[in-house]
Write a structure and sequence with these properties.
Number of helices: 16
CATH topology of the largest domain: Rossmann fold
Helix content: 25-40%
Number of domains: 3
Radius of gyration: 25 Å
Distance between the termini: 39 Å
Strand order of the largest sheet: 3-2-1-4-5-7-6-8-9
CATH architecture of the largest domain: 3-Layer(aba) Sandwich
Strand content: 25-35%
């Protein structure tokens, strides 16, 4: 681990420019400082200030290379996973940097962290110690072999690797390492509850058809950006699977729960015209695809079966997503565009169910990104293509 001179150097230069620090460093003035380690730790700790703020406050925590830190869970998502679990015994099969293990460990009496890379095991062991998490056992091993021999526990957590040998991202369950399809029976044999973290790019319905004993699904976004898909498996799971669509924010988190059975049976009518307000669902709801359920729950009308935008005459401030006041509506007619849309040169542009991409439409309108107005290019229920000029309200929500 780091020697004391290197630790002191990090603390003293935590706010310094890293490149300048590297150029100005003089080994003769700091003979005991390992500058390469110091620079890596300064960069990583700065990133942790926002990603893992609790750990940032502890100067004894040591970080992995920046790429590993970027791929690890954030504190806010780790705490969310911890809120779903509790019990006496817990095994993290894919410990990594140990963020998930650490926060979930607060909900269990006995915790086992498994990791096949010895350098990560040593790092995690050190960090658990300085964080006061003395009830976590760290083991360097093959996780499947360990699980086969292990006694049953209350909960198992797994965040399988999703990259090929060449570093390419993989999104299918069969491509995970370990292969979840092959080991799911073993997981349920060894634990009453299994929590699986998967890529937000994964097709949810495909996973439902592949995984057994799904009790809950959690689609987790942070600040309106999809981050994780969580599948909670239980030995005794019901028929209907609740899907929780979560948008985490330190001040105003939002959660909606629907099911695909309800969504398939739901009947809605589409708006015949645009009204006063326009609504865009948050990233989790868009990912999960509960387009009809949203309309029914929040009393808004969908613009088109494929547009995934909504409107209403009365404001619904509780709608889970971005809310806009409609300022003007333009057809694609050049005169109409000039009169209603093109008075501004800097706008935020969104395309939903429209034949042109954002880049193509921006070029056609001769507009740049920025400004206060938000334009939505979309298709209405009568198949008319329009561009809607809006002003966002409740900007602090996402």
């Amino acid at each position: 681990m780091l020697n004391q001179a290197t630790k002191d150097f990090i603390e003293k230069h935590l706010s310094c420019d890293v490149q300048r620090l590297a150029l100005q460093f003089r080994p003769e003035k700091h003979p005991d400082v390992v500058i390469s380690e110091a620079l890596d730790q300064i960069k990583a700790r700065r990133k942790s200030k926002y990603k893992i703020p609790t750990w940032f406050q502890n100067s004894e925590v040591i970080y992995p290379p920046l790429l590993s830190l970027e791929q690890s869970s954030s504190e806010i998502t780790a705490k969310y996973k911890a809120s779903l679990l509790s019990g006496n015994t817990f095994i993290d099969l894919t410990g990594g940097f140990g963020v998930d293990t650490a926060f979930i460990a607060e909900r269990f009496a006995k915790v086992t962290y498994l990791e096949k890379h010895n350098h990560l095991v040593k790092l995690a062991s050190h960090n658990f110690d300085v964080l006061g998490l003395n009830h976590i056992e760290t083991v360097c091993c093959d996780n499947v072999e360990y699980l086969q021999k292990a006694n049953p526990v209350d909960t198992v957590y797994i965040d399988p690797a999703r990259r090929s040998c060449s570093g390419e991202k993989m999104f299918l369950l069969h491509d995970c390492e370990p292969d979840l399809v092959k080991i799911q029976d073993l997981l349920l044999q060894k634990a009453d509850t299994v929590l699986i973290k998967l890529s937000p790019m994964l097709d949810i319905r495909s996973a439902i058809n592949t995984l057994k004993n799904i009790a809950e699904i959690h689609v987790v976004s942070v600040h309106n950006e999809n981050k994780e898909l969580l599948f909670l498996l239980k030995k005794k799971a019901g028929y209907s699977i609740p899907v929780f669509c979560v948008n985490l924010d330190k001040d105003d988190s939002q959660t909606d729960c629907f099911s695909y059975e309800e969504e398939s049976k739901a009947e809605i009518s589409h708006a015949k015209e645009l009204k006063t307000y326009l609504y865009e669902p948050n990233a989790s709801l868009m990912k999960a695809g509960f387009y009809k359920s949203i309309a029914l729950k929040y009393g808004v009308e969908k613009l088109h079966v494929n547009s995934h935008l909504y409107t209403s005459s009365e404001l619904n401030p509780n709608f889970p997503g971005r809310i806009f006041e409609i300022l003007s509506i333009s057809s694609m007619n050049k005169r109409d565009l000039k009169e209603k849309i093109q008075s501004e040169r800097n706008v935020h542009l969104t395309v939903r169910n429209f034949p042109l991409s954002v880049e193509e439409l921006r070029k056609k309108l001769n507009m740049k990104e920025g400004g206060q107005s938000c334009l939505f290019a979309t298709t209405l229920s009568d198949e008319k293509r329009v561009i809607i000029k809006t002003k966002q309200i409740f900007k602090d929500r996402n």
